[in-house]
Write a structure and sequence with these properties.
By secondary structure, this protein is α/β, with parallel strands linked by helices. The chain contains five helices and five strands. 37% of the residues are buried.
Length: 157
């Protein structure tokens, strides 16, 4: 699928967040939330740093966007994330009423937006999220591979 230039700009911003996670030796996932073509929330994985299993990039970006808008409903907002959201994050995206999800690469182990489950478009849930995938997939996969290669090297030492 071909995306317009602004979508690449926002996914690039999410990749920059993922690079922060990589620098911190976290799984390199980054997210940005956009409303009216402006980034209103950013996040990257901070599970190890915060010792919090819920400190996923999406969760941190959701909190930042809600604080910015002073509103829990994020209707009309889009999230750009470098890895397909898990069940927890997809649930939070649904609860926040995010309108659009753009993710770079699928997660065959935990993905809840098409890989294992498709909660974002589940017919039994009253809110649906429009899902778009594959935006800057190669760049995201490169960061994830680097993390796991570096992780293996750290374990060998």
């Amino acid at each position: 699928m071909i995306f317009d230039e602004t979508k690449y700009k926002f996914m690039y911003a999410a990749l920059q967040e993922a690079e922060k996670a990589l620098e911190d030796k976290e799984v390199p996932v980054g997210a940005v939330i956009v409303k009216d073509n402006k980034i209103i929330g950013r996040g990257y994985n901070q599970i190890e740093r915060l010792k919090d299993s819920t400190a996923h990039a999406e969760m941190i970006a959701l909190t930042a966007a809600s604080n910015y808008l002073k509103e829990w409903r994020l209707t009309g907002c889009s999230i750009f994330v470098t890895l397909e959201p898990c069940i927890m994050c997809t649930g939070a995206l649904l609860a926040s009423r995010i309108s659009n999800l753009y993710y770079a690469t699928s997660d065959p182990k935990y993905g809840a937006c098409g890989s294992i489950y498709n909660l974002a478009e589940e017919a039994r849930i009253n809110h649906k999220i429009k899902v778009y995938s594959g935006l800057m997939e190669a760049e995201s996969k490169t960061l994830i591979r680097k993390f796991f290669q570096d992780s293996r090297l750290r374990k060998e030492k």
